[in-house]
Amino acid sequence: MIFILTAQRNFFALFIGLFTACLIGPATARETYRTEENINYRSGASDDTYIRERCILDIYYPEDATGFPTVVWFHGGGITGGEKFIPNELKEKGLAVVAVNYRLSPKVKNPAYIDDAAAAIAWVFKHIDEYGGDPGKIFISGHSAGGYLAAMVGLDKSWLQQYGEDADRLAGIIDFSGHAVTHMTIRAERGISDKQPIIDEFAPLYHVRSDAPPLVLVSGDRELELLGRYEETAYFYRMMKVVGHQQVYLYELDGFDHGAMAAPGFHILLRHVNELTRKDK
């Protein structure tokens, strides 16, 4: 399904906030949350200082609760910058959030950062039940470069297979304005212009398949987004439909550019987390 969300910003914010409150509901007065920081998601000691520095995650979760869903969140920054954070819009919503750091270019080259994303997701599969979360309700998401990493690991099953996990166990993939073609930083590492699109094994588009987990694609306004980003996202959606995927959704957030689209995007994320986990109840 394709959604174009248009409105004046104040009305849009009010509408989507009320809509989300109806879907998710506020945290109860007795519900408290805890954050554990800088957990190394690569098992075993490493002599690599950069792995110890970057291959860490934070987990924010409701205490004294069980069976809750988890959102694994990858920050943006072009795979050359950025830092893990727990989005404020996802706090106190009855779910866990795992914020992930990963190694960055140019200190490492492709596919190190994709492998880091897979290792972090595998860690969540293996450990989320220790915090009370349901391993059957894990969603992966991210903005820009983070959306690209989520889509790559969720669609190309080989990344999680090497850690003994199945990407099809994911409850959903929610991609905020990530590259559908091969990422511009990977192209830059190869000496290819960021204006030259490539679709190879490092493009989410290359791995479209009918049996993938539910896929939610969120883009900013096509006139305000990064050059070509909406169009490649729309083509990604179209190709998922062509191969027969039954649960793919495309949202265009009218009036929001590449950076600003994340805030309303979180409300879309919460809506889909709620709907997809309700089916399990």
TrEMBL record:
SUPFAM superfamilies registered for this protein in UniProt: alpha/beta-Hydrolases
Keyword match Ribonucleoprotein: no
InterPro entries registered for this protein in UniProt: AB_hydrolase_fold, BD-FAE-like_dom, GDXG_lipolytic_enzyme
GO terms, molecular function: hydrolase activity
Keyword Hydrolase in annotation: yes
Key words, A-Z: Hydrolase
A Pfam family reported for this protein in Swiss-Prot or TrEMBL: BD-FAE
Domain BD-FAE-like: 57-222
Name by which UniProt lists this protein: Alpha/beta hydrolase
Protein source organism: Parapedobacter deserti
